[in-house]
Write a structure and sequence with these properties.
The protein is mainly alpha-helical. The protein is built from seven helices and two strands, in the order E-E-H-H-H-H-H-H-H. It has one domain (about 1-195). A two-stranded antiparallel sheet has the order 1-2.
């Protein structure tokens, strides 16, 4: 326990408690979010499978989207794995529990923020692009007729594209939160240093 120059007893751990709790929850949430992106990447082509099935009988207008999305799907799997690895770095450098951040913690914060933003941009751009292609190029009437006649899977849903856009927004929020956490942490450290310079020991 220390006594400030104004005669008020201060405890640094009390001062840091809300921020420490926030950072613990934040980094767990970001890891879960990264895992969610990976799960999402595995199911991107789900609603497109019916279009693939029609290829066996010549396909329907617009079914090319199944092949157009292959590269995007492959990239998202790789990106999501990289994002999970990056989201583990705060635990390696103890950013989730450390009271004071050092250079390693600062670097991982910016790396993670950049990775989240980059993933969000790539995800959002492709979801919007392929959602538009799906709705404007696929002949749904022919697609439905083929599906009913051949018992193929049929879907007009754009749910996966919408989910991707929502994920992208969450990733941007996560990037903002991790930078905010760093700013908050540094502000508290500076405040504590200022208090320590003006205090006397309770002797």
């Amino acid at each position: 326990m220390l006594l400030s120059a104004s005669g008020i007893y201060l405890r640094g751990d009390t001062m840091f408690k809300p921020q420490m709790k926030f950072q613990k929850i934040l980094f767990i949430a970001l890891l879960i979010m990264s895992a969610a992106v990976f799960v999402y990447s595995l199911g991107i082509m789900t609603d497109m499978y019916g279009l693939y099935q029609t290829q066996a009988i010549g396909g329907v207008p617009g079914s090319q989207i199944f092949y157009d999305m292959q590269g995007y799907n492959h990239n998202m799997v790789i990106i999501s794995i990289a994002l999970i690895i990056i989201s583990c770095l705060p635990f390696v450098f103890a950013s989730n529990t450390r009271r004071k951040y050092y250079i390693g913690n600062t670097i991982t914060t910016y790396v993670q923020a950049c990775a989240l933003v980059a993933t969000a941009i790539y995800l959002a751009i492709n979801c919007i692009k392929f959602r538009t292609q799906f709705l404007t190029t696929v002949d749904f009437e022919t697609y439905k007729s083929f599906s009913e006649a051949m018992n193929f899977m049929y879907s007009e849903s754009t749910g996966y594209f919408t989910a991707g856009i929502i994920l992208a927004v969450l990733l941007i929020v996560g990037a903002g939160a991790v930078v905010y956490n760093l700013i908050w942490k540094n502000k508290l450290v500076k405040q504590e240093d200022a208090i320590l310079k003006g205090e006397i020991t309770n002797g």
